[in-house]
Amino acid sequence: MESGIAIRETRFAGVFSDSQRIYTRNLTPGIRVYGERLIRINDEEYREWVAGRSKLAAYLKLGGNFFPFERTTRVLYLGAASGTTASHVSDLVIEGKVYCVEISPRSFRDLLFVCSSRKNMIPLLADASKPESYAMMIDKVDVVYQDIAQRGQTSIFIKNMRTFNAKAGMIAIKARSEDVTRKPKEIYDESIRKLESEGYEVADVIPLDPIEKDHAMIAVRGK
After folding, report:
1. What is the pLDDT of residue 5?
2. Are residues 74 and 153 in the same domain?
3. Which of 119, 176, 192, 211 has its CA 20 to 30 A from that of 30?
4. Which residues 6+ apart lie within 8 Å of 187 measured at CB?
């Protein structure tokens, strides 16, 4: 636990910075999720949001401008893995929900542990390509956030956006999961065209190199 560091809130509500690192206010003081640094200032505890461990943090560090998370936002998080980024989203949407979909039983076990201390995180062991299988367990979704590494990433994202009628979405595209023989920019451009053809407004596109090689974050506004 560290103290004495001066931080300020950024232009994104709930995200703080000491000019070098970014942080979220810890919803569960004293508890680390992935070994991140904790600092205490004026009776508040903050968790370092490590860009090398979170594509959403990398997006912010690299100049991303789209940020649909507010205190009451309900988020459908596809590909939550062990809960690293989802836990920071949980810090942001303290009066909302983070529905965490993960298909891997091993990662899901870790995710369950994280969710056990965070009452706004709801773990769902499910296949993100089949939103109909978990739709009955979700009340409402404002934002779809996706980070999965498989073919058809954009189609899966669109299917979930439609199913839950989300007003905004963010998808971390992994180019090599689509086609290792093509240039990453071709993959990103193809995803953008597909999203636009389905009526979504692309609000921001940020390649995540060098923090995340051959990845890009694409943010959209819903129809």
Report:
1. 76
2. yes
3. 211
4. 173, 175, 178, 179
